[in-house]
Design goal:
CATH architecture of the largest domain: 3-Layer(aba) Sandwich
Helix content: 40-55%
Distance between the termini: 56 Å
Radius of gyration: 24 Å
CATH superfamily of the largest domain: Vaccinia Virus protein VP39
Shape: globular
């Protein structure tokens, strides 16, 4: 496996050797992801940065195939097992990854001729010393190519859960978990597989004229820009060519942040001059947004567990010129006695199971387990126990996660209000009209809201106010 990693890192990496075998690079990334449990979004980002000199078309192909193979792994294996006399879990890791990436192209990429997919797979098998198996690879792929219209999937009417698991490549236990929570499961699964454009927030410190000029500048760079329907300063970008190629990003005029995450500061609605603490702040999006709202007379202390995380925050502080944000390395599971009762607003965006961002971090669904959902709640309660203590009487605690799980969300809000002197604050007025149906409005009146993965990430927000000292426990 060490050799595989070296291949990803070193093969044709020099700018003086532009002839990179794109499919081989994808193959090695997939082997590393599947075998080493490397997170695909991190590995892909690092490889794309290393090979930034490649043509945009090649980089887009790498990204599409790599992400697609992770996202659709369950479905791909289901199809391969129908046409192979060797089941996927019995295959050599390289052959398994090679078939997955090839079948993904056959099923989901019409721009790639089937014959080219099969031929390139055979060439790769031979190049990587699997000559004896090139006939097997060729036979499986050409059969799938011929018969892909006859692929049999689970019957939706007879076994709806299996149909959802295979068709949307979601582990069965997660499908069943959401059914048990009485969710609209298919709608969630559809949302997680939708295209996820880059979402940016415009720096609130820019004037209206500067915002207009900024948007015109992005359009001139051939970037597709579309305002998000939920928030005025949120936009979706396509064809960016990478954020580091956008001058407005480098200058701090925009920052990458999902719209659901933007609602944390918006719903907190701090007064100018407010003193705030974000206890799990990396990479700093919510803290910087909050800092823009409290103004230069206010202050946000952005904390996280180690130097690596606070370095990320500091990079964004510097880029966004957020002079009223400071960082502190501090473990949120420890109590900071000096901070007790000092903050007008505390953000507790706690570590979570991440089931709401599977569309962006595709590996999460394979790493999560029913046990891990229970374990994370214990950690969350430790953090909340300390975070709530920092809130002044009548101050605000903003609790948020990027998951869809009642144990981490609705039930956690109940736990906070039962064990600490907090009460929910109606947040209905902060939500756009599109999110004001009867069921959603009821939860917003009770101080919380569950965004589902459609126009945003699957994200949960609750706004809780600390009772006056005379009423506190």
């Amino acid at each position: 496996m060490e050799n595989q990693k070296k291949h990803v890192q070193n093969s044709n990496a020099s700018n003086n050797s532009p002839k990179v075998n794109i499919r081989e690079l994808i193959l090695d990334m997939l082997i590393e992801i599947y075998a080493d449990r490397e997170y695909s979004h991190i590995l892909l980002r690092n490889v794309l940065e290393k090979y930034n000199y490649l043509d945009q078309k090649d980089k887009s192909f790498m990204k599409r195939v790599c992400e697609g193979c992770v996202e659709r792994k369950i479905q791909l294996d289901y199809v391969i097992n129908q046409f192979s006399n060797i089941q996927v879990n019995k295959m050599k890791p390289l052959i398994r990854a090679l078939l997955r990436m090839s079948v993904y192209q056959l099923l989901f990429m019409d721009t790639v001729p089937d014959s080219a997919v099969c031929n390139e797979a055979v060439k790769l098998a031979q190049k990587r010393k699997f000559t004896a198996l090139k006939g097997f690879v060729n036979g499986v792929l050409r059969t799938i190519s011929r018969e892909k219209e006859q692929i049999k999937y689970p019957d939706k009417s007879k076994n709806y859960k299996e149909y959802l698991s295979v068709t949307y490549s979601m582990p069965m236990w997660i499908v069943e978990h959401w059914f048990n929570e009485k969710r609209d499961v298919e709608s969630i699964l559809e949302g997680l597989l939708k295209e996820h454009p880059v979402t940016i927030r415009i720096n609130n410190n820019l004037t209206p004229d500067q915002k207009t000029e900024l948007l015109e500048e992005l359009v001139k760079q051939q970037i597709q820009v579309e305002r998000h329907e939920y928030l005025e300063d949120a936009y979706e970008l396509k064809n960016t060519g990478g954020l580091n190629n956008i001058q407005a990003f480098l200058e701090g005029k925009i920052t990458v942040q999902d719209v659901s995450s933007m609602f944390v500061a918006k719903i907190a609605n701090p007064e100018k001059g407010a003193q705030c603490i974000d206890v799990c702040a990396a990479p700093g999006g919510k803290a910087i947004h909050l800092a823009e709202m409290v103004g230069i007379e206010g202050h946000v202390e952005a904390r996280d567990l180690n130097d690596y995380k606070t370095d990320m925050i500091n990079e964004n502080i510097k880029r966004m010129k957020a002079s009223n944000v400071s960082t502190l390395v501090f473990d949120a599971t420890d109590l900071d006695e000096s901070a007790v009762g000092t903050a007008d607003v505390v953000i507790a965006d706690v570590p979570c199971s991440g089931l709401g961002v599977i569309g962006k971090k595709r590996d999460i669904k394979y790493h999560a387990t029913p046990e891990s959902l229970k374990e994370i709640v214990t950690l969350q309660k430790k953090i909340i126990t300390n975070a709530q203590a920092y809130v002044k009487p009548q101050g605000i605690l903003m609790y948020s996660t990027c998951t869809i799980n009642r144990g981490e969300n609705e039930e956690m809000v109940e736990w906070i209000c039962k064990n600490y002197p907090f009460e929910p604050v109606c947040i209905q007025s902060f939500l756009p009209q599109q999110l004001q149906d009867e069921k959603m409005s009821e939860s917003a009146k009770n101080g919380y809201f569950q965004f589902l993965p459609d126009k945003t990430d699957g994200f949960f927000i609750a706004k809780l106010q600390k009772k006056a000292e005379s009423l506190s426990k």
